[in-house]
Predict the 3D structure of the following.
Amino acid sequence: MRTKSLSHYIQSYFLSYLIAQRGYGRNTIASYRDTFKLLFIFLEENKLSVSKASIESVDKTCVEEFIHWLESRRKNAISTRNVRLAHLKSFWGYVLTTTPEWADHCSQIIHIPFKKTEKRPPAYLTEAETKQLLSMPDSNTRSGIRHMAVHCFMIRDAGFRNSLP
């Protein structure tokens, strides 16, 4: 049996799955596209022609080297690396559902673990900073009142109900 090219599966993934089945928006599609553009750059740097690449040429080792390359050479944060890995896992999940004979190959990639990231609490404005922010718009103009209203909603939604005047 002749294996279809990697580009065949990628095209099918974008057109049949991400757009037609999942209905993802333009920004989400662009994020997935960027992952594959980076993968193509990585493959070309490693002397693997994207136009000639097959499913078996992008294996678990290749994907692990790619995500390491994102961190080390491109200086991507761990969170960005994890997003790129999530995109690839989704792609290989799609390949698994369309081509079950590649189940072992796909599952090896799907089971690559995400890296843990340091969880930092969100930064908050101090009470003085909140008051300063609310005093900035000119309450004598329509746009100033609108800006003040937006600031109040932002602060309220962020949990600063006690800071409101």
Summary: The helical segments are 6-21, 26-45, 60-72, 78-98, 103-110, 127-135, 142-157. Residues 127-163 form one domain.
